[in-house]
Design brief:
binds 1-O-pyrophosphono-5-O-phosphono-alpha-D-ribofuranose, Rossmann fold, about 180 residues, three-stranded antiparallel beta sheet, alpha/beta
Length: about 180
């Protein structure tokens, strides 16, 4: 973890402190909603690793953790909604209260597919917690119960989000300088 902002970052959009406060707020809301129940957190690799780790530790609710990795057919910057499972859940989710944890909802197509896929496995309930959402990019309306921040449709990195696999380790969410992805 570092407070240093690499030179490729144009601007810090959401600071480490703002993320920490928001994760605590989301966790408190989830604790209230799931009082007396256990939650199965399903993190969507790789972007969700940071929010998954921080949210799990902020929750008082007992949780178990599962991960899925999916790949969207389409260009590297936009998803098509046609999804391939690269790594499936290790356990059944039947009768569990599933909370899908995502770093970002962009078009919403990946999540839409995931929700249909997980729902077909007979969970007791399915909700979504996403740190970031780009409302202007939405191609589909989704029932997302827990949202951290709505952000503009700009290319963001950090706190799990990458550009060609880099910058996921940054503790903040920032805008990448256009020359980095243009060059
Ligand atoms: C990102 C993000 C979501 C998806 C959102 O994953 O984690 O899963 O894109 O986009 P959508 O709403 O337009 O479908 P990505 O495919 O970049 O993989 P990664 O998490 O491994 O970086």
């Amino acid at each position: 973890m570092t407070d240093d902002v690499p030179p490729e970052i144009e601007k810090v959009l959401i600071s480490e402190e703002e993320i920490r406060a928001k994760v605590a707020e989301l966790a408190a809301q989830i604790d209230r909603d799931y009082a007396g129940r256990e939650v199965l957190l399903v993190g969507v690799l790789k972007g969700a690793v940071m929010i998954m780790a921080d949210l799990a530790r902020a929750l008082k609710t007992p949780v178990s953790m599962e991960f899925m990795a999916v790949s969207s057919y389409g260009s590297s910057t936009s998803s098509s909604g046609v999804v391939r499972i690269l790594k499936d859940l290790d356990r059944e989710v039947a009768d569990k209260h599933v909370l899908v944890v995502e770093d970002i909802i962009d078009s919403g197509l990946t999540l839409s597919w995931l929700l249909r896929n997980i729902s077909s496995r007979g969970p007791a309930s399915v909700e979504v917690c996403a740190l970031l959402r780009k409302p202007e990019a939405a191609k589909i309306e989704l029932p997302v119960k827990y949202i951290g921040f709505d952000i503009p449709s700009e290319f963001v990195v950090g706190y799990g989000l990458d550009y060609v696999e880099r910058y996921r380790d940054l503790p903040f969410v920032g805008l990448l300088k256009p020359e980095v992805y243009a060059g």
